[in-house]
């Protein structure tokens, strides 16, 4: 028999005590209500639903119990029926069992006497929708500029730590303070070659040229600070900056060149006008508050009617494409369900992009985690309702705004008159030719049938008698006669009637080509309505559009009402439209809204460091991540607004900081203390996004077409079923024709200009995690999977890029293979290779050359008939090396 000492017995008894026995105080409002709200409110209290007569929205309701009496006994967990049911997984009914942590919290609360933090209200009205704890959530508090930590007191004594004089007041001070708390310090500053590559990819999404690297390194040696400032300014001034950062915003907005509905996935032929607006806005450093206002309500800033539009008006109307980006199936299926799906997706996108909140989760019920009621959702919908107007829904084509001026419309009308004169003459000539041929064909028929045939032919098809139809069928040469078949008779009659008519049709078409070019804007506009005709907004029961309940008025989130105005006027008397969206836009950008500036500053930080200060950029709510540096986030947000909402200034601030200029080298100490690098004691390594990878391949190979803006580059399915760049030449049955229409260099344009059809994503984009926009994308996933390596190694696209790269290296890298190797390495990595790398690469090229001498191989072709002529073995050997470099991590990742 084993005997326990008194100390061992006491320890055994202690370990047998439930965890909640010695837990910290647990309160209903802070700890228990969030669990019940997430899992139980829907059946026990919300919208009058009280299964078993039990309401769990207040502690005293729980103490009262349901039809069968009390469900908990304060201080007695074992006697509390509700806890027993939850632990057995029988409640919540039909749902996943609560986590052990949540169960322990409920047990602790009961064990401690089921306490509340304050007296509960007698009745639950709208004013009690949220607790003080919910209202105090960090992201919903006013932004206040915090005090910047002292730099001198935060600098580590570590040998590699920078001196206080090398740190910048602001970002570096906040980062240094947090690092000091964790026993960490800054990593050494990265080398200039790495820095220019990092900065170039960050700001313009393209690798620096060898000359740019050499110039910057030379300038850096003379004066690091000045060289970095000049580099950042040069990159910000590049037109490629707008393409790079416009792409980030287009993710947020859910940009697409197709409607994203059904198998047809209809094209949006003019959505690129919004894309170009975004690119131009970033290039001009349009103040972000103005950028937001124009996207939400640009149409309400432009007087009606939309005629003879000035450039500024065109810009504002183009901006409203922001509200037209979500999937919209009403061009194919215009019913209530499809309309409301489009509205819901748009509100979801607005919520994540501007508020940084999952407002869309309150469509069917109160938000399960955040202080957003279902009524809040529909109040926000009421802001946009007059523009959508399900009572008088406008399909995609009906929302286009023409850019033709009144003068151009008049010019087009005059030109059309001239074209129609030619059309009229052609029709007369066609009738003349038909009559001529008809009489010739009638002479071939029996004389007794000629008049009957003539009458039958001239009778309209639907009015012909059965005898006439039968007679014509006996004389096919008469029956098939039409203007479109005249060519069949030209050979017999030795005439050229068909050619003459074709020439006249071409002449009319040529005249029409002189009309002013017709272009449209892909806009979201609101039509003026009389007060009684403005569509009302109702809360939908459980989100069902066909079950409207009480009507709501437009407003911002009610949780903000304690410190700011949330009411949106139903009608602005100064505007022809309701002005609701403009009012909301002004509220969001008044400099006092707690979310907009925080959300955007966080996005910019995320794209520079690979992770936001808040790691969930579209969710600043309870399920999102907490900020790693909350004071710095607010300092950046207030400074951002104080500096005129300038994004370029924010870039300068970040990129000239010591924090940004760190190396990315890892070490055991940093990995142990901060394995995810949340506190930024080093720089994060980034993988290139799908589009930037393709752009880099084009840039390195010397093929990149720098044209900015314009209609998208088309995509198509090739004969293997892969989506490639090209003009679709399939026939009406969807069969490939084999024809290849040249794109004249457009195929080498940047990826932001490649048509973004939701159902036709380029193979490289799909493989490297480009989003599909359903409806938008706040943060891209970064996967590492075998198809990525297989694509880089084996795809025709990569082999063609490698050939183009080899052509450039041969043309610019000198005659000697070793020199070509050095040049190829520098184009890809920005750095000269070691002599060991050069020697191994030369040997590799020679070995590949010998292989191709023994195995003649033609060049790869992306589209069209494959080549049959073997290429030069020396070129193919160099191509093999170029392919390896393009597939390497040296290109794919940025330090």
Strand content: under 5%
Spatial gap, N to C terminus: 65 Å
Q: Please tell me how large the radius of gyration is.
A: 35 Å
Question: Outline, from the CA principal axes?
Answer: globular
- Poorly predicted residue ranges: 1-17, 155-159
Side by side, the strands of the main sheet go 1-2
Count of DSSP strands: 8
Quickly give the structural class.
Answer: mainly alpha
Helix content percent band: 40-55%
Total of helices: 35
The pLDDT mean sits at 93
Largest sheet: 2 strands, antiparallel
Structural description of this entry:
The chain is mainly alpha-helical. It is 46% helix and 3% strand. The chain is built from 35 helices and eight strands. The strands form four sheets. It has a two-stranded antiparallel ribbon. A two-stranded antiparallel sheet has the order 3-4. The relative contact order is 0.10. Mean pLDDT is 93; it is low at 1-17 and 155-159.
């Amino acid at each position: 028999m084993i005997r326990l000492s008194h100390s061992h017995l006491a320890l055994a008894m202690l370990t047998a005590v439930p965890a909640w026995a010695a837990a910290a105080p647990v309160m209903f409002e802070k700890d228990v209500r969030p669990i019940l709200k997430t899992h139980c409110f829907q059946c026990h209290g919300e919208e009058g639903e009280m299964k078993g007569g039990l309401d769990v929205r207040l502690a005293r309701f729980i103490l009262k119990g349901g039809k069968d009496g009390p469900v908990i006994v304060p201080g007695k967990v074992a006697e509390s029926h509700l806890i027993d049911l939850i632990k057995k997984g029988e409640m919540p009914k039909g749902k996943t069992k609560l986590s052990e942590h949540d169960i322990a919290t409920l047990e602790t609360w009961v064990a401690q006497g089921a306490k509340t933090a304050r007296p509960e209200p007698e009745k639950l009205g709208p004013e009690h929708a949220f607790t003080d704890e919910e209202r105090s959530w960090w992201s919903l508090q006013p932004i206040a500029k915090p005090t910047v930590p002292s730099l001198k007191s935060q600098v580590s004594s570590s040998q590699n730590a920078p001196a206080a004089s090398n740190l910048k007041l602001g970002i570096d001070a906040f980062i240094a303070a947090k690092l000091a708390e964790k026993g960490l310090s800054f990593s050494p500053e990265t080398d200039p070659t790495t820095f220019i590559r990092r900065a170039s990819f960050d700001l313009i999404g393209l690798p620096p040229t060898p000359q740019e690297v050499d110039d910057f390194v030379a300038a850096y040696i003379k004066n690091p600070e000045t060289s970095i400032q000049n580099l950042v300014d040069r990159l910000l001034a590049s037109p490629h900056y707008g393409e790079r950062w416009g792409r980030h915003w287009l993710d947020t907005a859910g940009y697409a060149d197709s409607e994203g509905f059904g198998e047809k996935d209809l094209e949006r032929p003019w959505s690129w006008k919004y894309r170009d607006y975004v690119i131009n806005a970033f290039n001009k450093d349009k103040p972000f508050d103005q950028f937001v206002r124009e996207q939400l309500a640009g149409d309400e800033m432009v007087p009606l009617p939309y005629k003879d539009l000035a450039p500024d008006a065109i810009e504002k109307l183009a901006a409203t494409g922001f509200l037209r980006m979500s999937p919209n199936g009403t061009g194919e299926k215009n019913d209530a369900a499809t309309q409301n799906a489009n509205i819901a997706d748009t509100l979801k996108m607005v919520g994540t992009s501007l508020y940084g909140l999952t407002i869309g989760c309150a469509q069917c019920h109160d938000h399960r985690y955040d202080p957003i009621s279902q009524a809040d959702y529909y109040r926000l919908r009421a802001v946009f309702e007059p523009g959508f107007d399900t009572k008088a829904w406008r399909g995609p084509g009906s929302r286009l705004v023409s850019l033709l001026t009144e003068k151009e419309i008049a010019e087009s009308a005059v030109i059309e008159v001239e074209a129609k004169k030619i059309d009229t003459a052609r029709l007369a000539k066609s009738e003349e030719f038909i009559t001529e041929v008809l009489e010739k064909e009638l002479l071939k028929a029996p004389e007794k049938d000629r008049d009957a045939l003539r009458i039958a032919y001239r009778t309209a098809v639907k009015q012909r008698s059965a005898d006439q139809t039968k007679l014509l069928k006996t004389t096919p040469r008469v029956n098939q006669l039409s203007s479109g078949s005249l060519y069949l008779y030209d050979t017999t009659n030795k005439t050229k009637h068909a050619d003459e008519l074709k020439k006249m049709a071409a002449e009319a078409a040529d005249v029409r080509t002189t009309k002013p070019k017709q272009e449209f804007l892909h806009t979201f506009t609101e039509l003026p309505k009389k007060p009684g005709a403005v569509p009302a907004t109702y809360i939908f029961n459980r989100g069902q559009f066909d079950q409207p309940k009480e009507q709501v008025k437009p407003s911002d989130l009610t949780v903000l009402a304690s410190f700011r105005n949330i009411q949106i006027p139903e009608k602005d008397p100064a505007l022809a439209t309701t002005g609701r969206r403009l009012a909301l836009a002004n509220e969001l950008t008044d400099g006092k809204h707690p979310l907009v500036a925080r959300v955007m500053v966080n996005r910019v930080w995320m794209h520079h460091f690979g992770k936001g200060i808040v790691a969930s950029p579209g969710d600043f709510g309870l399920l999102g991540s907490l900020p790693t540096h909350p004071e710095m986030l607010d300092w950046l947000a207030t400074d951002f607004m104080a500096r005129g909402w300038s994004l370029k200034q924010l870039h300068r601030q970040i990129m000239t900081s010591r924090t940004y200029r760190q190396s990315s080298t890892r070490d055991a100490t940093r990995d142990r203390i901060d394995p995810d690098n949340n506190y930024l004691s080093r720089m994060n390594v980034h993988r290139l996004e799908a589009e930037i990878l393709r752009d880099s391949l084009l840039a390195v190979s010397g093929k990149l077409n720098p044209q900015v803006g314009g209609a998208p580059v088309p995509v198509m399915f090739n004969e293997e079923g892969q989506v490639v760049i090209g003009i679709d030449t399939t026939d009406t049955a969807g069969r490939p024709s084999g024809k290849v229409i040249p794109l004249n260099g457009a195929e080498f344009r940047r990826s932001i200009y490649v048509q973004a059809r939701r159902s036709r994503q380029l193979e490289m984009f799909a493989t490297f995690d480009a989003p599909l926009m359903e409806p938008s994308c706040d943060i891209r996933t970064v996967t590492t999977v075998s198809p990525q390596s297989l694509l880089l190694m084996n795809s025709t696209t990569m082999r063609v890029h490698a050939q183009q790269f080899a052509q450039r290296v041969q043309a610019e890298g000198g005659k000697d293979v070793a020199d070509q190797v050095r040049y190829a390495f520098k184009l890809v990595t920005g750095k000269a290779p070691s002599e060991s790398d050069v020697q191994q690469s030369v040997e590799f090229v020679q070995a590949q050359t010998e292989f191709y001498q023994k195995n003649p191989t033609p060049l790869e072709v992306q589209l069209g008939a494959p080549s049959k002529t073997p290429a030069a073995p020396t070129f193919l050997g160099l191509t093999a090396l170029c392919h390896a470099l393009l597939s390497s991590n040296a290109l794919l990742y940025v330090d």
